Inverse folding.
Protein backbone atom coordinates (compact mmCIF):
# COMPACT_ATOMS: atom_id res chain seq x y z
CA UNK A 1 0.00 0.00 0.00
CA UNK A 2 2.60 2.57 1.05
CA UNK A 3 4.91 1.35 -1.70
CA UNK A 4 2.17 1.99 -4.25
CA UNK A 5 1.65 5.50 -2.92
CA UNK A 6 5.40 6.04 -2.87
CA UNK A 7 5.72 5.45 -6.59
CA UNK A 8 2.57 7.44 -7.28
CA UNK A 9 3.89 10.47 -5.45
CA UNK A 10 7.28 10.06 -7.10
CA UNK A 11 5.87 10.03 -10.66
CA UNK A 12 3.46 12.87 -9.94
CA UNK A 13 6.29 15.02 -8.61
CA UNK A 14 8.44 14.14 -11.62
CA UNK A 15 5.73 15.28 -14.04
CA UNK A 16 4.98 18.32 -11.93
CA UNK A 17 8.69 19.21 -11.95
CA UNK A 18 8.66 19.10 -15.75
CA UNK A 19 5.47 21.15 -15.92
CA UNK A 20 6.85 23.84 -13.58
CA UNK A 21 10.59 23.48 -14.15
CA UNK A 22 10.62 23.92 -17.95
CA UNK A 23 8.87 27.32 -18.00
CA UNK A 24 10.77 28.34 -14.86
CA UNK A 25 14.05 27.80 -16.66
CA UNK A 26 12.75 29.80 -19.68
CA UNK A 27 11.64 32.71 -17.52
CA UNK A 28 15.05 32.95 -15.90
CA UNK A 29 17.06 32.33 -19.09
CA UNK A 30 15.16 33.94 -22.01
CA UNK A 31 16.97 33.66 -25.37
CA UNK A 32 16.24 37.28 -26.26
CA UNK A 33 14.01 40.21 -25.34
CA UNK A 34 11.06 39.00 -27.42
CA UNK A 35 11.01 35.76 -25.52
CA UNK A 36 11.58 37.60 -22.27
CA UNK A 37 8.53 39.81 -22.77
CA UNK A 38 6.33 36.82 -23.38
CA UNK A 39 7.73 34.39 -20.83
CA UNK A 40 6.83 36.01 -17.54
CA UNK A 41 5.60 34.30 -14.43
CA UNK A 42 2.28 36.14 -14.68
CA UNK A 43 1.73 35.09 -18.29
CA UNK A 44 2.60 31.45 -17.64
CA UNK A 45 0.27 31.26 -14.65
CA UNK A 46 -2.50 32.91 -16.65
CA UNK A 47 -2.17 30.54 -19.62
CA UNK A 48 -1.93 27.46 -17.40
CA UNK A 49 -4.96 28.62 -15.44
CA UNK A 50 -6.97 29.23 -18.61
CA UNK A 51 -5.94 25.87 -19.94
CA UNK A 52 -6.93 24.04 -16.77
CA UNK A 53 -10.25 25.87 -16.64
CA UNK A 54 -11.03 25.00 -20.26
CA UNK A 55 -10.17 21.39 -19.51
CA UNK A 56 -11.91 21.14 -16.15
CA UNK A 57 -15.18 22.93 -16.88
CA UNK A 58 -15.78 21.20 -20.20
CA UNK A 59 -14.83 17.76 -18.81
CA UNK A 60 -17.05 18.14 -15.76
CA UNK A 61 -20.10 18.97 -17.86
CA UNK A 62 -19.17 16.25 -20.33
CA UNK A 63 -19.00 13.62 -17.56
CA UNK A 64 -22.38 14.67 -16.25
CA UNK A 65 -24.11 14.75 -19.63
CA UNK A 66 -22.21 11.83 -21.21
CA UNK A 67 -22.81 9.42 -18.33
CA UNK A 68 -26.47 10.45 -18.06
CA UNK A 69 -27.24 9.96 -21.75
CA UNK A 70 -25.16 6.79 -21.79
CA UNK A 71 -27.26 5.34 -18.97
CA UNK A 72 -30.51 6.60 -20.45
CA UNK A 73 -30.05 4.80 -23.75
CA UNK A 74 -29.57 1.48 -21.92
CA UNK A 75 -32.97 1.85 -20.18
CA UNK A 76 -35.85 -0.10 -21.74
CA UNK A 77 -37.83 3.02 -22.66
CA UNK A 78 -34.99 4.69 -24.54
CA UNK A 79 -33.19 1.67 -25.89
CA UNK A 80 -34.69 2.32 -29.31
CA UNK A 81 -32.59 5.51 -29.48
CA UNK A 82 -29.30 3.77 -28.74
CA UNK A 83 -28.23 2.95 -32.33
CA UNK A 84 -28.96 6.51 -33.47
CA UNK A 85 -27.10 8.09 -30.57
CA UNK A 86 -24.12 5.76 -30.83
CA UNK A 87 -23.82 6.39 -34.57
CA UNK A 88 -24.06 10.14 -34.08
CA UNK A 89 -21.31 9.89 -31.49
CA UNK A 90 -19.10 7.90 -33.81
CA UNK A 91 -19.56 10.42 -36.61
CA UNK A 92 -18.99 13.34 -34.22
CA UNK A 93 -15.74 11.78 -33.08
CA UNK A 94 -14.33 11.75 -36.62
CA UNK A 95 -14.64 15.52 -37.00
CA UNK A 96 -11.22 17.09 -36.24
CA UNK A 97 -11.17 19.16 -33.06
CA UNK A 98 -10.05 22.33 -34.81
CA UNK A 99 -13.01 22.00 -37.16
CA UNK A 100 -15.33 21.69 -34.16
CA UNK A 101 -13.86 24.91 -32.78
CA UNK A 102 -14.27 26.63 -36.14
CA UNK A 103 -17.88 25.53 -36.45
CA UNK A 104 -18.76 26.82 -33.00
CA UNK A 105 -16.95 30.05 -33.64
CA UNK A 106 -19.23 30.44 -36.61
CA UNK A 107 -22.27 29.82 -34.42
CA UNK A 108 -21.53 31.62 -31.14
CA UNK A 109 -18.52 33.76 -31.99
CA UNK A 110 -15.03 34.00 -30.51
CA UNK A 111 -14.04 33.68 -26.89
CA UNK A 112 -13.68 31.53 -23.85
CA UNK A 113 -17.29 30.34 -23.70
CA UNK A 114 -17.22 29.11 -27.27
CA UNK A 115 -14.12 27.07 -26.51
CA UNK A 116 -15.72 25.56 -23.42
CA UNK A 117 -18.85 24.60 -25.33
CA UNK A 118 -16.88 23.07 -28.19
CA UNK A 119 -14.58 21.11 -25.90
CA UNK A 120 -17.55 19.99 -23.81
CA UNK A 121 -19.38 18.61 -26.84
CA UNK A 122 -16.24 17.01 -28.16
CA UNK A 123 -15.44 15.22 -24.90
CA UNK A 124 -18.99 13.99 -24.32
CA UNK A 125 -18.44 11.50 -27.09
CA UNK A 126 -15.96 9.00 -25.60
CA UNK A 127 -17.67 9.22 -22.21
CA UNK A 128 -21.11 8.54 -23.62
CA UNK A 129 -19.90 5.72 -25.82
CA UNK A 130 -18.01 4.01 -23.00
CA UNK A 131 -20.88 4.38 -20.54
CA UNK A 132 -23.22 2.73 -23.01
CA UNK A 133 -20.74 -0.03 -23.86
CA UNK A 134 -19.81 -0.60 -20.21
CA UNK A 135 -23.40 -1.14 -19.13
CA UNK A 136 -24.37 -3.07 -22.23
CA UNK A 137 -21.58 -5.62 -21.89
CA UNK A 138 -22.54 -6.69 -18.36
CA UNK A 139 -23.54 -10.33 -18.44
CA UNK A 140 -27.35 -10.61 -18.70
CA UNK A 141 -27.28 -13.38 -16.05
CA UNK A 142 -26.05 -10.92 -13.47
CA UNK A 143 -28.85 -8.48 -14.28
CA UNK A 144 -31.42 -11.25 -14.32
CA UNK A 145 -30.29 -12.55 -10.95
CA UNK A 146 -30.46 -9.05 -9.49
CA UNK A 147 -33.92 -8.43 -10.89
CA UNK A 148 -35.18 -11.87 -9.98
CA UNK A 149 -34.11 -11.42 -6.38
CA UNK A 150 -36.21 -8.29 -6.10
CA UNK A 151 -33.95 -5.31 -6.69
CA UNK A 152 -35.76 -2.28 -8.09
CA UNK A 153 -34.47 -0.96 -11.44
CA UNK A 154 -32.86 1.97 -9.62
CA UNK A 155 -31.08 -0.37 -7.20
CA UNK A 156 -29.90 -2.59 -10.06
CA UNK A 157 -28.42 0.51 -11.70
CA UNK A 158 -26.73 1.82 -8.56
CA UNK A 159 -25.55 -1.40 -7.00
CA UNK A 160 -24.85 -3.53 -10.05
CA UNK A 161 -24.67 -1.76 -13.38
CA UNK A 162 -22.70 1.38 -12.51
CA UNK A 163 -20.11 -0.38 -10.32
CA UNK A 164 -19.56 -3.02 -12.98
CA UNK A 165 -19.31 -0.50 -15.81
CA UNK A 166 -17.19 1.92 -13.80
CA UNK A 167 -13.80 0.89 -15.18
CA UNK A 168 -15.04 1.25 -18.77
CA UNK A 169 -16.65 4.60 -17.95
CA UNK A 170 -13.42 5.76 -16.30
CA UNK A 171 -11.48 4.75 -19.42
CA UNK A 172 -13.85 6.95 -21.44
CA UNK A 173 -13.31 9.84 -19.05
CA UNK A 174 -9.55 9.43 -19.35
CA UNK A 175 -9.74 9.42 -23.13
CA UNK A 176 -11.89 12.52 -23.02
CA UNK A 177 -9.45 14.18 -20.63
CA UNK A 178 -6.41 13.53 -22.84
CA UNK A 179 -8.22 14.66 -25.99
CA UNK A 180 -9.41 17.70 -24.10
CA UNK A 181 -6.00 18.87 -22.90
CA UNK A 182 -4.76 18.56 -26.47
CA UNK A 183 -7.74 20.27 -28.05
CA UNK A 184 -7.56 23.07 -25.51
CA UNK A 185 -4.24 24.17 -27.06
CA UNK A 186 -6.28 25.11 -30.13
CA UNK A 187 -8.50 27.45 -28.11
CA UNK A 188 -6.05 30.24 -28.81
CA UNK A 189 -7.27 30.34 -32.43
CA UNK A 190 -10.61 31.64 -31.22
CA UNK A 191 -9.04 33.93 -28.64
CA UNK A 192 -9.81 31.77 -25.64
CA UNK A 193 -6.26 31.68 -24.28
CA UNK A 194 -4.60 28.64 -22.79
CA UNK A 195 -1.14 27.21 -23.33
CA UNK A 196 -1.76 27.27 -27.08
CA UNK A 197 -1.02 31.00 -26.98
CA UNK A 198 2.65 30.23 -26.35
CA UNK A 199 2.77 27.75 -29.21
CA UNK A 200 0.96 29.97 -31.68
CA UNK A 201 2.95 33.10 -30.82
CA UNK A 202 6.20 31.19 -30.68
CA UNK A 203 5.65 29.87 -34.17
CA UNK A 204 4.58 33.26 -35.50
CA UNK A 205 7.75 34.98 -34.26
CA UNK A 206 9.95 31.91 -34.84
CA UNK A 207 11.10 31.50 -31.23
CA UNK A 208 11.56 27.78 -30.44
CA UNK A 209 11.91 28.50 -26.73
CA UNK A 210 8.39 29.93 -26.69
CA UNK A 211 6.55 27.18 -28.54
CA UNK A 212 8.58 24.48 -26.81
CA UNK A 213 7.53 25.87 -23.43
CA UNK A 214 3.88 25.74 -24.50
CA UNK A 215 4.28 22.26 -25.97
CA UNK A 216 6.15 20.77 -23.00
CA UNK A 217 3.65 22.25 -20.54
CA UNK A 218 0.62 21.00 -22.48
CA UNK A 219 2.14 17.54 -22.92
CA UNK A 220 3.21 17.15 -19.29
CA UNK A 221 -0.18 18.46 -18.15
CA UNK A 222 -1.97 15.85 -20.27
CA UNK A 223 0.15 13.02 -18.83
CA UNK A 224 -0.14 14.36 -15.29
CA UNK A 225 -3.93 14.67 -15.42
CA UNK A 226 -4.26 11.22 -16.97
CA UNK A 227 -2.03 9.85 -14.23
CA UNK A 228 -4.25 11.43 -11.57
CA UNK A 229 -7.33 9.96 -13.18
CA UNK A 230 -5.72 6.53 -13.30
CA UNK A 231 -5.04 6.79 -9.56
CA UNK A 232 -8.69 7.71 -8.95
CA UNK A 233 -9.73 4.77 -11.12
CA UNK A 234 -7.59 2.38 -9.05
CA UNK A 235 -8.92 3.67 -5.78
CA UNK A 236 -12.65 3.51 -6.51
CA UNK B 1 -48.47 -23.32 -1.91
CA UNK B 2 -48.27 -22.37 -5.56
CA UNK B 3 -51.17 -22.89 -7.94
CA UNK B 4 -50.95 -22.30 -11.67
CA UNK B 5 -54.26 -21.91 -13.46
CA UNK B 6 -54.50 -22.14 -17.25
CA UNK B 7 -51.18 -20.36 -17.44
CA UNK B 8 -50.38 -19.32 -21.02
CA UNK B 9 -47.53 -17.36 -22.55
CA UNK B 10 -47.42 -16.45 -26.20
CA UNK B 11 -44.29 -14.54 -27.25
CA UNK B 12 -45.11 -14.38 -30.92
CA UNK B 13 -48.68 -14.51 -32.25
CA UNK B 14 -47.43 -16.35 -35.33
CA UNK B 15 -46.05 -19.24 -33.29
CA UNK B 16 -47.72 -21.68 -30.94
CA UNK B 17 -47.61 -20.51 -27.32
CA UNK B 18 -44.46 -21.25 -25.29
CA UNK B 19 -46.64 -22.29 -22.36
CA UNK B 20 -50.11 -23.52 -23.14
CA UNK B 21 -52.96 -23.67 -20.60
CA UNK B 22 -50.77 -25.07 -17.87
CA UNK B 23 -52.42 -25.89 -14.55
CA UNK B 24 -50.75 -27.47 -11.59
CA UNK B 25 -50.47 -27.18 -7.86
CA UNK B 26 -47.40 -27.43 -5.68
CA UNK B 27 -48.06 -28.08 -2.01
CA UNK B 28 -46.20 -26.33 0.72
CA UNK B 29 -42.78 -27.84 1.44
CA UNK B 30 -42.83 -29.86 -1.75
CA UNK B 31 -40.32 -29.90 -4.55
CA UNK B 32 -41.92 -29.83 -7.99
CA UNK B 33 -39.54 -30.56 -10.85
CA UNK B 34 -40.42 -29.24 -14.29
CA UNK B 35 -38.73 -31.52 -16.78
CA UNK B 36 -38.73 -31.77 -20.54
CA UNK B 37 -36.66 -31.16 -23.64
CA UNK B 38 -35.33 -27.66 -24.33
CA UNK B 39 -38.00 -25.36 -25.65
CA UNK B 40 -40.77 -27.13 -23.78
CA UNK B 41 -41.59 -23.99 -21.78
CA UNK B 42 -40.28 -25.09 -18.39
CA UNK B 43 -38.07 -22.04 -17.84
CA UNK B 44 -40.76 -19.71 -19.15
CA UNK B 45 -43.20 -21.24 -16.67
CA UNK B 46 -40.78 -20.69 -13.84
CA UNK B 47 -40.04 -17.10 -14.80
CA UNK B 48 -43.74 -16.32 -14.83
CA UNK B 49 -43.87 -17.20 -11.14
CA UNK B 50 -41.51 -14.37 -10.17
CA UNK B 51 -42.88 -12.31 -13.06
CA UNK B 52 -39.64 -11.90 -14.94
CA UNK B 53 -42.03 -12.86 -17.73
CA UNK B 54 -45.62 -11.67 -17.56
CA UNK B 55 -48.18 -14.32 -18.56
CA UNK B 56 -50.39 -13.71 -21.58
CA UNK B 57 -53.23 -15.52 -19.87
CA UNK B 58 -54.04 -17.46 -16.76
CA UNK B 59 -53.33 -16.90 -13.10
CA UNK B 60 -50.73 -17.78 -10.54
CA UNK B 61 -51.78 -18.05 -6.92
CA UNK B 62 -49.21 -17.93 -4.17
CA UNK B 63 -50.72 -19.09 -0.88
CA UNK B 64 -54.09 -18.36 -2.40
CA UNK B 65 -53.19 -14.82 -3.39
CA UNK B 66 -53.26 -13.75 -7.04
CA UNK B 67 -49.59 -13.03 -7.78
CA UNK B 68 -50.38 -10.30 -10.31
CA UNK B 69 -51.93 -8.31 -7.47
CA UNK B 70 -48.86 -8.57 -5.24
CA UNK B 71 -46.30 -5.74 -5.45
CA UNK B 72 -43.63 -6.92 -7.90
CA UNK B 73 -40.63 -6.17 -5.66
CA UNK B 74 -42.29 -7.64 -2.58
CA UNK B 75 -43.16 -10.76 -4.54
CA UNK B 76 -39.60 -11.26 -5.77
CA UNK B 77 -38.00 -10.55 -2.40
CA UNK B 78 -40.08 -13.42 -1.03
CA UNK B 79 -38.95 -15.91 -3.69
CA UNK B 80 -35.44 -17.36 -3.74
CA UNK B 81 -34.03 -17.48 -7.26
CA UNK B 82 -31.15 -19.63 -8.51
CA UNK B 83 -30.14 -19.87 -12.17
CA UNK B 84 -27.71 -22.13 -13.98
CA UNK B 85 -25.39 -19.25 -14.83
CA UNK B 86 -25.56 -18.34 -11.11
CA UNK B 87 -25.18 -14.63 -11.85
CA UNK B 88 -23.04 -13.81 -8.83
CA UNK B 89 -22.11 -10.13 -8.70
CA UNK B 90 -18.43 -10.11 -9.67
CA UNK B 91 -17.63 -6.79 -8.00
CA UNK B 92 -18.92 -7.88 -4.60
CA UNK B 93 -17.40 -10.24 -2.06
CA UNK B 94 -19.04 -13.57 -1.32
CA UNK B 95 -20.50 -12.14 1.88
CA UNK B 96 -21.95 -9.12 0.06
CA UNK B 97 -23.39 -11.38 -2.60
CA UNK B 98 -25.17 -13.51 -0.04
CA UNK B 99 -26.33 -10.41 1.82
CA UNK B 100 -28.10 -8.99 -1.24
CA UNK B 101 -31.72 -9.69 -0.30
CA UNK B 102 -31.36 -9.07 3.46
CA UNK B 103 -29.83 -5.70 2.55
CA UNK B 104 -32.71 -4.94 0.21
CA UNK B 105 -35.01 -5.77 3.10
CA UNK B 106 -32.96 -3.39 5.29
CA UNK B 107 -32.08 -5.92 7.97
CA UNK B 108 -29.83 -4.56 10.71
CA UNK B 109 -26.16 -5.04 9.80
CA UNK B 110 -25.34 -7.42 12.61
CA UNK B 111 -28.19 -9.73 11.71
CA UNK B 112 -27.12 -9.70 8.04
CA UNK B 113 -23.53 -10.77 8.73
CA UNK B 114 -24.63 -13.36 11.24
CA UNK B 115 -26.97 -14.80 8.62
CA UNK B 116 -24.17 -14.82 6.02
CA UNK B 117 -21.96 -16.92 8.30
CA UNK B 118 -24.83 -19.26 9.06
CA UNK B 119 -25.59 -19.78 5.35
CA UNK B 120 -21.97 -20.39 4.40
CA UNK B 121 -21.90 -23.10 7.09
CA UNK B 122 -25.13 -24.54 5.72
CA UNK B 123 -23.71 -24.92 2.23
CA UNK B 124 -20.51 -26.40 3.62
CA UNK B 125 -18.07 -23.52 3.13
CA UNK B 126 -15.94 -22.11 5.94
CA UNK B 127 -17.14 -18.52 6.54
CA UNK B 128 -13.74 -17.19 7.62
CA UNK B 129 -12.10 -18.63 4.55
CA UNK B 130 -14.64 -17.56 1.95
CA UNK B 131 -16.45 -14.46 3.23
CA UNK B 132 -14.12 -11.87 1.80
CA UNK B 133 -13.24 -13.57 -1.47
CA UNK B 134 -14.54 -12.50 -4.84
CA UNK B 135 -16.60 -14.89 -6.99
CA UNK B 136 -13.79 -15.25 -9.54
CA UNK B 137 -11.59 -16.91 -6.88
CA UNK B 138 -14.05 -19.80 -6.47
CA UNK B 139 -14.53 -23.06 -8.34
CA UNK B 140 -17.73 -23.76 -10.24
CA UNK B 141 -19.11 -25.95 -7.47
CA UNK B 142 -18.31 -23.40 -4.79
CA UNK B 143 -19.92 -20.63 -6.82
CA UNK B 144 -23.08 -22.65 -7.22
CA UNK B 145 -23.17 -23.18 -3.45
CA UNK B 146 -22.96 -19.42 -3.03
CA UNK B 147 -25.78 -19.03 -5.55
CA UNK B 148 -27.95 -21.36 -3.47
CA UNK B 149 -26.93 -19.66 -0.21
CA UNK B 150 -27.74 -16.25 -1.69
CA UNK B 151 -31.20 -17.36 -2.72
CA UNK B 152 -31.94 -18.67 0.77
CA UNK B 153 -30.59 -15.59 2.53
CA UNK B 154 -33.85 -14.02 3.68
CA UNK B 155 -35.42 -17.43 4.28
CA UNK B 156 -38.01 -17.15 1.48
CA UNK B 157 -40.79 -19.75 1.68
CA UNK B 158 -40.57 -20.36 -2.07
CA UNK B 159 -37.54 -21.09 -4.22
CA UNK B 160 -37.19 -21.18 -7.98
CA UNK B 161 -34.21 -23.13 -9.28
CA UNK B 162 -33.41 -23.18 -12.98
CA UNK B 163 -30.95 -26.01 -13.73
CA UNK B 164 -28.99 -25.00 -10.64
CA UNK B 165 -26.51 -27.84 -10.95
CA UNK B 166 -26.52 -28.06 -14.73
CA UNK B 167 -23.10 -26.58 -15.39
CA UNK B 168 -21.24 -28.82 -12.95
CA UNK B 169 -19.28 -32.00 -13.51
CA UNK B 170 -21.18 -35.20 -12.61
CA UNK B 171 -19.39 -35.84 -9.32
CA UNK B 172 -19.80 -32.31 -8.02
CA UNK B 173 -23.39 -32.31 -9.24
CA UNK B 174 -24.28 -35.49 -7.35
CA UNK B 175 -22.57 -34.08 -4.29
CA UNK B 176 -24.46 -30.80 -4.39
CA UNK B 177 -27.74 -32.57 -5.12
CA UNK B 178 -27.31 -34.71 -2.02
CA UNK B 179 -26.36 -31.76 0.07
CA UNK B 180 -29.32 -29.79 -1.16
CA UNK B 181 -31.67 -32.67 -0.39
CA UNK B 182 -30.26 -32.76 3.11
CA UNK B 183 -30.78 -29.02 3.52
CA UNK B 184 -34.29 -29.22 2.08
CA UNK B 185 -35.23 -31.91 4.59
CA UNK B 186 -34.57 -29.36 7.28
CA UNK B 187 -35.84 -26.12 5.72
CA UNK B 188 -38.87 -27.54 3.88
CA UNK B 189 -39.19 -24.88 1.18
CA UNK B 190 -41.71 -24.96 -1.60
CA UNK B 191 -39.48 -25.44 -4.61
CA UNK B 192 -39.97 -25.22 -8.36
CA UNK B 193 -36.97 -26.92 -9.90
CA UNK B 194 -36.31 -26.86 -13.64
CA UNK B 195 -34.13 -29.45 -15.34
CA UNK B 196 -33.85 -31.32 -18.63
CA UNK B 197 -32.25 -34.29 -16.88
CA UNK B 198 -34.84 -36.94 -15.94
CA UNK B 199 -32.44 -38.60 -13.50
CA UNK B 200 -32.09 -35.34 -11.65
CA UNK B 201 -35.86 -34.92 -11.70
CA UNK B 202 -36.41 -38.36 -10.19
CA UNK B 203 -33.80 -37.71 -7.55
CA UNK B 204 -34.83 -34.19 -6.51
CA UNK B 205 -38.57 -34.15 -6.97
CA UNK B 206 -41.49 -34.96 -4.70
CA UNK B 207 -43.54 -34.41 -7.82
CA UNK B 208 -42.46 -34.34 -11.44
CA UNK B 209 -44.20 -32.30 -14.11
CA UNK B 210 -43.26 -33.51 -17.57
CA UNK B 211 -43.73 -30.79 -20.17
CA UNK B 212 -43.76 -30.90 -23.93
CA UNK B 213 -44.35 -28.02 -26.32
CA UNK B 214 -45.76 -25.86 -23.56
CA UNK B 215 -48.24 -28.46 -22.35
CA UNK B 216 -48.24 -30.56 -19.20
CA UNK B 217 -47.90 -34.22 -20.18
CA UNK B 218 -47.85 -35.87 -16.79
CA UNK B 219 -47.80 -34.64 -13.20
CA UNK B 220 -46.99 -37.38 -10.73
CA UNK B 221 -44.68 -38.59 -8.03
CA UNK B 222 -41.42 -40.09 -9.34
CA UNK B 223 -42.55 -43.60 -8.31
CA UNK B 224 -45.83 -43.34 -10.18
CA UNK B 225 -44.17 -41.81 -13.18
CA UNK B 226 -41.74 -44.71 -13.40
CA UNK B 227 -44.37 -47.39 -12.89
CA UNK B 228 -47.17 -45.76 -14.92
CA UNK B 229 -45.88 -43.39 -17.56
CA UNK B 230 -48.80 -41.53 -19.16
CA UNK B 231 -47.77 -41.98 -22.77
CA UNK B 232 -45.03 -42.81 -25.24
CA UNK B 233 -43.35 -39.44 -24.73
CA UNK B 234 -42.88 -40.03 -20.99
CA UNK B 235 -41.72 -43.60 -21.64
CA UNK B 236 -39.05 -42.29 -23.99
CA UNK B 237 -38.08 -39.50 -21.62
CA UNK B 238 -37.70 -41.88 -18.71
CA UNK B 239 -35.93 -44.32 -21.01
CA UNK B 240 -35.51 -48.02 -20.36
CA UNK B 241 -33.76 -49.44 -17.33
CA UNK B 242 -36.61 -48.94 -14.98
CA UNK B 243 -34.70 -50.72 -12.22
CA UNK B 244 -31.65 -48.56 -12.65
CA UNK B 245 -33.79 -45.41 -12.52
CA UNK B 246 -35.30 -46.61 -9.28
CA UNK B 247 -31.84 -46.43 -7.76
CA UNK B 248 -32.22 -42.63 -7.88
CA UNK B 249 -35.21 -42.90 -5.59
CA UNK B 250 -33.76 -44.99 -2.80
CA UNK B 251 -31.27 -43.58 -0.31
CA UNK B 252 -28.37 -45.52 1.12
CA UNK B 253 -29.91 -45.09 4.58
CA UNK B 254 -32.54 -47.69 3.69
CA UNK B 255 -30.14 -50.58 3.16
CA UNK B 256 -27.12 -49.50 5.12
CA UNK B 257 -25.38 -52.05 7.33
CA UNK B 258 -24.75 -49.97 10.41
CA UNK B 259 -22.48 -52.40 12.22
CA UNK B 260 -19.61 -53.35 9.96
CA UNK B 261 -16.46 -54.72 11.56
CA UNK B 262 -14.27 -51.89 12.77
CA UNK B 263 -10.91 -51.61 14.40
CA UNK B 264 -8.69 -48.82 15.61
CA UNK B 265 -5.49 -47.99 13.80
CA UNK B 266 -3.36 -48.94 16.83
CA UNK B 267 -4.84 -52.44 17.06
CA UNK B 268 -2.55 -55.32 16.20
CA UNK B 269 -2.79 -56.89 12.77
CA UNK B 270 -3.62 -60.25 14.32
CA UNK B 271 -6.88 -58.80 15.69
CA UNK B 272 -7.81 -57.58 12.23
CA UNK B 273 -7.08 -61.03 10.85
CA UNK B 274 -9.48 -62.60 13.30
CA UNK B 275 -12.19 -60.09 12.38
CA UNK B 276 -11.63 -60.66 8.68
CA UNK B 277 -12.20 -64.39 9.09
CA UNK B 278 -15.56 -63.68 10.69
CA UNK B 279 -16.55 -61.02 8.15
CA UNK B 280 -18.61 -62.14 5.20
CA UNK B 281 -17.56 -59.07 3.24
CA UNK B 282 -13.88 -59.50 3.94
CA UNK B 283 -13.65 -55.93 5.14
CA UNK B 284 -12.53 -54.22 8.33
CA UNK B 285 -12.88 -50.47 8.56
CA UNK B 286 -10.26 -48.59 10.54
CA UNK B 287 -11.50 -45.60 12.50
CA UNK B 288 -10.08 -43.21 15.06
CA UNK B 289 -11.54 -42.43 18.48
CA UNK B 290 -14.12 -40.03 16.93
CA UNK B 291 -15.40 -42.71 14.55
CA UNK B 292 -13.66 -40.89 11.70
CA UNK B 293 -12.80 -43.25 8.85
CA UNK B 294 -9.03 -43.61 8.52
CA UNK B 295 -8.76 -46.57 6.17
CA UNK B 296 -9.75 -50.16 5.61
CA UNK B 297 -8.18 -53.60 5.66
CA UNK B 298 -8.99 -56.48 3.31
CA UNK B 299 -7.42 -59.97 3.44
CA UNK B 300 -4.87 -59.13 0.73
CA UNK B 301 -3.31 -56.47 2.95
CA UNK B 302 -2.51 -59.03 5.65
CA UNK B 303 0.49 -60.12 3.60
CA UNK B 304 2.06 -56.72 4.11
CA UNK B 305 4.63 -56.26 6.88
CA UNK B 306 3.37 -54.37 9.87
CA UNK B 307 2.53 -54.48 13.52
CA UNK B 308 -0.68 -52.45 13.64
CA UNK B 309 -3.58 -51.73 11.33
CA UNK B 310 -2.13 -48.31 10.57
CA UNK B 311 0.78 -50.01 8.81
CA UNK B 312 -1.23 -52.15 6.45
CA UNK B 313 -4.50 -50.29 5.88
CA UNK B 314 -5.31 -48.29 2.74
CA UNK B 315 -7.35 -45.10 2.54
CA UNK B 316 -10.67 -45.53 0.73
CA UNK B 317 -10.68 -43.94 -2.75
CA UNK B 318 -14.21 -42.70 -2.45
CA UNK B 319 -16.95 -42.79 0.14
CA UNK B 320 -20.58 -41.68 -0.09
CA UNK B 321 -22.54 -39.40 2.21
CA UNK B 322 -25.58 -40.46 4.21
CA UNK B 323 -28.09 -38.70 1.94
CA UNK B 324 -26.75 -40.30 -1.25
CA UNK B 325 -28.90 -42.42 -3.51
CA UNK B 326 -28.22 -46.04 -4.36
CA UNK B 327 -27.28 -44.81 -7.81
CA UNK B 328 -24.47 -42.73 -6.30
CA UNK B 329 -23.35 -45.69 -4.20
CA UNK B 330 -23.38 -48.02 -7.18
CA UNK B 331 -21.30 -45.71 -9.33
CA UNK B 332 -18.71 -45.39 -6.57
CA UNK B 333 -18.60 -49.19 -6.23
CA UNK B 334 -18.04 -49.51 -9.96
CA UNK B 335 -15.29 -46.93 -10.00
CA UNK B 336 -13.60 -48.46 -6.92
CA UNK B 337 -13.98 -51.93 -8.36
CA UNK B 338 -15.36 -53.26 -5.06
CA UNK B 339 -18.67 -54.78 -4.02
CA UNK B 340 -19.19 -52.33 -1.19
CA UNK B 341 -18.82 -48.68 -0.33
CA UNK B 342 -18.24 -46.98 3.00
CA UNK B 343 -20.91 -44.49 4.05
CA UNK B 344 -19.89 -41.46 6.11
CA UNK B 345 -21.69 -38.47 7.56
CA UNK B 346 -20.80 -34.88 6.71
CA UNK B 347 -17.89 -34.92 9.19
CA UNK B 348 -16.36 -38.04 7.61
CA UNK B 349 -17.49 -40.23 10.52
CA UNK B 350 -18.44 -43.82 9.81
CA UNK B 351 -22.13 -44.50 9.30
CA UNK B 352 -21.90 -47.99 7.86
CA UNK B 353 -21.47 -49.94 4.66
CA UNK B 354 -23.63 -50.46 1.60
CA UNK B 355 -23.06 -53.59 -0.43
CA UNK B 356 -23.85 -54.67 -3.95
CA UNK B 357 -25.92 -57.54 -2.55
CA UNK B 358 -27.93 -55.06 -0.55
CA UNK B 359 -28.71 -53.03 -3.67
CA UNK B 360 -29.74 -56.13 -5.61
CA UNK B 361 -31.91 -57.20 -2.70
CA UNK B 362 -33.86 -53.94 -2.83
CA UNK B 363 -34.40 -54.23 -6.56
CA UNK B 364 -35.62 -57.82 -6.25
CA UNK B 365 -38.02 -56.89 -3.45
CA UNK B 366 -39.65 -54.35 -5.69
CA UNK B 367 -39.93 -56.43 -8.82
Amino acid sequence: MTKKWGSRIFFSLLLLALFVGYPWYGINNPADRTVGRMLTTDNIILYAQQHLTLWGVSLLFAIFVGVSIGILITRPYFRFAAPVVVNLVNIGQTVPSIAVLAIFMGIIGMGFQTAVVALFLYSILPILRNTYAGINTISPDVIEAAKGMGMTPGRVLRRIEIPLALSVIMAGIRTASVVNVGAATLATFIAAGGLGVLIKTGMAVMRPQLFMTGAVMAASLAVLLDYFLSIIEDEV
Amino acid sequence: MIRLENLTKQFNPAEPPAVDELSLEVKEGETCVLVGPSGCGKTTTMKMINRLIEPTNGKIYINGEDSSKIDLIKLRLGIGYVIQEIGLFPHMTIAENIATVPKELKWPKEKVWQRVDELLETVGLDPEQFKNRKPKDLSGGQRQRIGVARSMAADPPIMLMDEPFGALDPITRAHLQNEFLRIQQRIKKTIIFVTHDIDEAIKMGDKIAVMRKGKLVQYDTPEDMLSAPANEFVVNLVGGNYSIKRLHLIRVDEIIDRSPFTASSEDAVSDAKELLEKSKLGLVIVTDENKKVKGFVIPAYLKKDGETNADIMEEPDQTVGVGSTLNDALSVMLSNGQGYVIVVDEKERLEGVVTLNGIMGVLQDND
About this structure: The first helix of chain B runs from residue 42 to 49.
